[in-house]
Amino acid sequence: MADFIRILIAILLPPLGVFLEVGLGKHFWINLLLTLLGYIPGIVHAVWVIAKH
User: Fold this and answer.
1) Running along the chain, 53 residues long, what does each successive block of 10 average in pLDDT?
2) What is the pTM of this model?
3) pLDDT number for residue 3
4) Which one of 17, 24, 45, 50 has the lowest number of neighbouring Cβ atoms within 10 Å?
5) SS3 letters for the chain?
6) DSSP at 7
7) How many CB atoms are closer than 10 A to CB 50?
8) Exposure b/e, 13-48, CB count within 10 A at least 16 = b
């Protein structure tokens, strides 16, 4: 259930979803950059990071 909530957060605000999963690591900064360049790539990356962990 926690992953489902994180995925919902990742859809609304991708960097927050990644931050809740892995903290301020490299994946957070990559996701922030992807979200700034395009919202959809940020969502895809966030869901991937959450599913991977």
Assistant:
1) 88 95 95 96 95 89
2) 0.90
3) 79
4) 24
5) CHHHHHHHHHHHCHHHHHHHHHCCCHHHHHHHHHHHHCHHHHHHHHHHHHHHC
6) H
7) 22
8) ebbbbbbbbbeeeebbebbbebbeeeeebbbebbbe
